[in-house]
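Final paragraph of the annual report: two paired records, presented back to back.
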Amino acid sequence: MGVAIGAAAVALALALTWAGAGATRATPDAPTVATAERHRWLADASRSRIGFVTRYAGGAVEGRFGRWTSDIVFDPTDPASASASIAIDLASTETGSDEMDAALVGADWFDVAAFPEARFHSERIHPLGGDRYEAEGRLGLRGVTLPIRVPMRIVVDGDRATATGEIELDRSLFGVGQGTWSSDESVPRMVRVAFHLVARRAGSVEPAGPGPEAVPSPAPTPIRPATTPVVEDHRPKPAFPGQTMAKPPARPSRYRVESLASGLDHPWSMAFLPDGGILLTERPGRMRLLRPDGRLSPPLSGVPAVKVVAAQGLHDLLLDPDFARNRTLYFTYFAPLENDAPPSLEGWIAWLTLPAGQHRARPYGHERIARAMLSADGASLTDVQVIAEGADRRLALARDGTIFAAAAPPAGGGVPVDMEPQRLDNSYGKVLRLARDGAVPRDNPFAARSGVVPSIYAYGLRDMEGAAIHPTTGLLWTVEHGPRGGDEVNVIRPGRNYGFPLIGYGREYSGAPINGGRTAASGLEQPVYFWTPSIAPSGMSFYRGRLFPEWRNSLFVGALAGKRLIRLELKGERVMREEPLLAELGKRIRDVREGPDGAIYVLTDEKDGELLRLLPAAPGDRR
């Protein structure tokens, strides 16, 4: 997705030729200091927006930049004297998806580690008549500096002002992304950016009323889709019929949606307690309890320190099979190093780009599985113990009482894939199998093999963000993110190699083929199902309830980028039908579970995330 944003940084810098946010920089050249001070403008970041929209991998990508600084002088009676110096923090990209944000700041796209800022300095601002202007200047991005022009409308009313405009630019001029730019075979070259900026004159008193929006001024320019269509022509041939793009059911499902809780900060997982409460994790490092009466508790005490960066944080939650008696639970999280520095996307990307084999020796944090007890009043965790390291994604309880743990490889951020999932001396891209005290079961497939992590149960996988035990066979099923396409549903069997990155149905983030584009090879397992383009799957659950008889034996998968809940009708280990649900909400779906009441429960991945419950449609409800 990051290739779509290079021009957004360009247009952002251009938009800011009139106003900026946050701190100011050195005083620019001006006729006099007094004149400069009288016509210096301070942007109101809370009321301003600079956004972009394009398409990538078959879906819309929208976002903004959260941090920028400026020093702006503008006199509408003398635009020739105007000057602007702008700096944009490229690490402040905000799309609503931490994983997507990490991709945008990676080496293939902004390359924040090498070029942390985009800088613009105006040379002149030309009046075009009335309140129309064109800013002319030079923009530096990714080590490339080019002349740039941007049209805008500026309305000044006393000490308050607004500026609106939009621009379409060619990101490839700045070396952002890879591909055949001239033919748009990688991603669309062009991106459209719209901005609406609100500011007050420096030294003026902040208005107490509704603010600049009360000033007669143009409405914010709507952000429209880029005119250049995406060309996502990667359609790998499936290994067998029905392995992808299954047809929808003959009749769409009917259901209604209830919101049980809101205000959750990127919730990740849930567990149903015997008393009717629901324990929830939030990725920034909090657990909260939704009590049976519907009250949402404050964060529980006793949760260990969590390192939050990109998609890393506090993740899955699993109750012990004897929880009603022992109050024991298990959870996964990313822990800080000893004497750790504050996390940053730049540091995270630098770690991701280490050569294969070096990530374990030079960790950025610790992927951990912990065991704890939930206090009787549900207000705290006690007796917290780390039982294993090397995995921080999904957990699943096997029929024999052991725990399956999904371990993600260093991936995302636009970083090219590497061979970590094929190396047996680490846990990256593996399913681990552990006893509930963290011990390694003797019958693990590699337990007696020298030089191999003994907890490995299966390998050659990627970022598994969903895991569930099949209710009939007892086998573990997982769903994983591909890089650019190639999201997979797999049935996990002991000792098997699931192929990544030797085979796969996706491509590099840049659009380049992985290992020559091979999708099959002898001795490597095939997925039950795959999606290309990517839906960014997360969370999965088999349905055995009675509320929805037509859903029995279906597999539900959440979609983050796809912004929907997906129902897969199964026949054995084959997918027969695929049905999208909740697409009308337009929300990223993080987790899905069948509740004790037979309803489907869903978590949305947002700053103001929700816990939703799907129930049968009420009489007369058309949905």
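The closing record of the year follows.
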Amino acid sequence: MSAEGELDDRDRRLAALLDELTEAVRAGETPQLDEVARMHPDLADELRALWSTVLVAGAVAQVTGDHVEPADAGPTTPLPSDLPDYELREELGRGGMGIVYRARQRSLQRDVAVKLILRGTLASADDLARFQAEAEAAGRLQHPHIVPIYEVANHRGQCYFSMQLVEGATLAGKLAHGPLPAAEAARLIATVARAIHYAHTQGVVHRDLKPANILIDAAGEPHVTDFGLAKQLDAGLSLTRSGAVLGTPTYMAPELAAGDRGSIGPACDVYSLGTILYTLLTGRPPFQGPSPVDTVMMVLQQDPLPPRLLNRKLDRDLEMIVLKCLQKPPELRYASAAALADDLTAYLHDEPISARSGQFSQIVARVFRETHHATVLENWGLLWMWHAAVILVMCLVTNWLHAKRGQWPECAQPWPYLLLWGGGLALWAPIFWMLRHRIGPVTAVERQIAHVWGGSVAAVILLFVVESLLGLPVLTLSPVLGLIGGAVFVAKAGILSGVFYIQAAAMFATALAMAELQRRGLDWGISLYGLVSAAAFFLPGWKYYRQSRAGGS
């Protein structure tokens, strides 16, 4: 079987095993991941990695859907009739964890909202802990735009809490009628952002901001609710297992989608506020795939369409505010939800916004920083070191052959070099790709980089053909190798890490040096190219190889 056929068979086996595990979950059974991994040791690592992503998206889809179901969306739970002090009158809505009722509080003769845990007395310990965490997180917050908690209680094993009843609709309900006017959207998010900033100052990160969790009262004012996934920054314990991801994929920050608990902080909520603003302005969220898994992967790997492509009337300043919120690296977003609110207020008052400003040092830092795709380089570290060795050997052999052209007339012809470079790279490329594929699934970004690299290989080989067609002595056009290499690293700098601009500059400088050596009659330009090119691959390869080893230990 060919290498390509083996890889296709491997993918089919992985897909079949994932389907088997997924069907077990849907049937209410416990998936036997360890047993399946033992039965397929060659797929164990990839299977565990992919299953983590499937679990993330599956849990997200089941635990926190993109909207709270209205009371008439399906069968309702019979109204409990024996909650002390509360007369439950109608179901207002339900989510993955709880049911919200309109109720009458007898002692104070007021209408309130009462939230009961969805599974009632059958709730698991995790469900109870998360429900309690929501009550505690919201209960410590006193802000006019955060729904306050009145009472937390447990009656005969049924956990519940009462809170302010906000008469009106959710922001998701308003979106059902289409995008909002820009000024109204900016005002709403500015108000919500200030409320979220207050929560951050109290040590609470919401982590599940979305239109369904923002209530709009009769006066048009927003109120944040549903702190079921809130993280208390001063708490020593977390309700999520290591690597688990909770939230709604469409509005989830990349660090949440990646399950990186160490990166969870206020920047997650800033990102979510940006996704909500994007949705209010365009009528659609920035990322929405056909399945939760697809959406998670889009959040991790893709950049959103600029809002002005979807709404031509949108002001450029407002677009810049949205895109700053949606930066993949947290440090490139607004430093706080308050800073976002300030920029939205400036926009509403037709004043300059901070998203347009930037100090020179910040600009330089952004140019040379890693993109969110740079993590794929950990898969390439060892391969790049081998690639550096291959390039250096090929260049040294080429220079040696060229130096022998006086003794061996064949070395003055293009075919030995075509055989060396064409045959060598044609042999190395599939080996390189096969070794990479064995490390794990190849991402879309890696395929893009592979296409850039493949184009450069074709250009290098065709240089010898062009020399022959023009009747030029062999290696006359060798300085162009440096230009090709520089162009490849410019592409890598834009996609992966701005540090590669340094390699690109080194390759362009090498092209000039090779031309000068050739002008002076010195034949060692190709060796110089080999040394610089090998270093350009080896140094980042060594860095990311060590990084991957450290992450796996």
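The first strand starts at residue 69 and ends at 70. This concludes the annual technical report; the extension proposal builds directly on these records.
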